[in-house]
Specification:
glycoprotein, transmembrane, signal, single chain, mainly alpha, sulfotransferase activity
Length: about 350
């Protein structure tokens, strides 16, 4: 009988030790995969270094400059893998010396003018025209308190910077600019660079729904005079004229004449300085249905405002449309255009168009 009790006790001891060992193994080798895709340790290490925020050397920052939202988490495991990969790709391309001239720019007044500020919720939004910016402006207008809901905002107010209550980063002092760049949640949206150029051409030179006459009556004639091959052709600006202008290495002399109107077709690099400013999130127009809620959540404002409803299919990349617009353009002009926008393609993970590879 005594031996039976000893045997039973030994069995319980073995079972107990097995349970402890199993728990230890589970905790030690827990699957680190996110959404079914394994993250490499090297990438995680690099991301932790990239995302580290350099706070100005002050013992105590004023309350209005204290970080908010989730952007300051240094653990990329807390972020969906797609956003980790986007920032990692951006930083890798920024370090590529061969692309430096296409990926770097100075944080000039031109860049600071593109960045809108929401001090109440500590958000900076860099405007990249032709990528759904009107809707993001509406979100910030509501957050800044100018209107209580997106539906109340008149369309003519959204882009009127005297009335929409959206200050630009350039309106602050150098020290105030630096504090906001260091501590605020920062984001912008991109889309396929060539599709964006088509959108800009159609919006400004074909339909012109906002009745901005300078595009057709000042900018278009300037491009035609310089870049149209057939001088007897009397039609308005054609897409091939537009491509020739954009791909010209000496385009800047016209850009100076056109002023800030060029924001609708200059590169994302020139607009937002992504290699100089540590952005928190980079949304993609093609995945905006997922990216918009994620951005609102990461900024800590998803309980305050919603991104306007996205019509079905509007964000889908239209490969057929892009190929149709470029079908009549010479390979030489397309290559020159790509050479200018290569930084945008590489920084944000867009493939070189198939019609350039054939």
């Amino acid at each position: 009988m005594h031996h039976q009790w000893l045997l039973l006790a030994a069995c319980f001891w073995v079972i107990f030790m097995f349970m402890v060992a199993s728990k230890f193994i589970t905790l030690t080798f827990k699957d680190p995969d996110v959404y079914g895709v394994k993250q490499e340790p090297l990438m995680l290490t690099a991301m932790t270094k990239v995302e580290k925020i350099q706070v100005p050397e002050e013992k105590c920052l004023p309350e209005e400059f204290q970080p908010t939202g989730n952007v300051f988490s240094e653990d990329p495991m807390h972020q969906p893998l797609v956003h980790v990969k986007r920032i990692e790709l951006l930083r890798n391309v920024c370090r590529d010396a061969a692309l430096r001239n296409l990926s770097h720019t100075t944080i000039s007044k031109f860049v600071l003018d593109r960045i809108f500020v929401c001090d109440k919720h500590k958000i900076l939004f860099c405007q990249t025209p032709k990528v759904g910016n009107t809707q993001w402006k509406k979100v910030l207008i509501v957050l800044n308190g100018a209107f209580s809901s997106i539906e109340e905002i008149p369309e003519n107010i959204v882009h009127d910077h005297e009335k929409n209550g959206l200050p630009r980063l350039s309106s602050f002092s150098d020290s105030e600019i630096q504090k906001r760049l260091n501590l605020y949640f920062k984001f912008f949206i991109v889309r396929d660079p060539f599709e964006r150029l088509i959108s800009a051409f159609k919006d400004k030179f074909v339909h012109n729904p906002r009745f901005e006459p300078w595009y057709r009556h000042e900018i278009a004639p300037g491009i035609i005079r310089k870049y149209r091959k057939n001088r007897t052709e009397t039609r308005g600006l054609q897409f091939e004229d537009f491509v020739r202008y954009l791909g010209d290495p000496n385009h800047r002399w016209l850009d100076v004449q056109f002023g800030d109107h060029i924001i609708h077709w200059v590169t994302y690099v020139e607009l937002c300085a992504p290699c100089e400013i540590t952005y928190s999130v980079i949304g993609h127009h093609e995945t905006l249905e997922d990216d918009a809620p994620y951005i609102l959540k990461e900024a800590g404002i998803d309980h305050l405002v919603s991104y306007p409803t996205i019509p079905p299919g509007i964000t889908v990349y239209n490969k057929t449309k892009v190929e149709r617009y470029f079908s009549g353009i010479s390979k030489r002009d397309i290559r020159r255009l790509y050479a200018r926008f290569e930084g945008d393609f590489k920084l944000f993970g867009y493939r070189e168009p198939d019609f350039l590879l054939n």
